[in-house]
Amino acid sequence: MSTVAKIMRKQPKTVGPGVSIVSAAKTMRTARVGSLFVKKGKQLVGIVTDTDIVRRAVSTNKNLAKLTVEKIMTTPICTIEGNRPVDDAQEMMGDLGVRHLGVTQAGEIVGVISVRDLLLFYKRYAQSKISQEEQYSEPKIMQD
After folding, report:
1. pTM for this entry
2. Domain at 4-134: CATH code
3. Are 101 and 89 a contacting pair, CB within 8 Å?
4. CA 55 to chain centre
């Protein structure tokens, strides 16, 4: 089985804690990502996801232009070591009820893995298994 590091997205996008929800959402749309790490100085202090924006901001009828990511971010960031099997990431996401995990190497976040990354991985994995089975399947006997 493959490792988390092989399917993670490297160099995750970041925003500052004082960035507005509207600005963060625009950054996500432009970068085509579902999460942004929140960086204060040189330290990652949280993560804001598309789900956080919907559940903790939009649904509350607060002024999104004035509400900052610091007010709705998830902290601490749930992480997994990059050398762990992909199945461990799936299990951890299910247990924690999250859709994004920071990927660490020697304790430092170096990437991010999402539920979408897992779906794409398992799709490719299933397709490769089907291809292997087709290669080794017995010939079909046909009758006239």
Report:
1. 0.83
2. 3.10.580.10
3. yes
4. 17
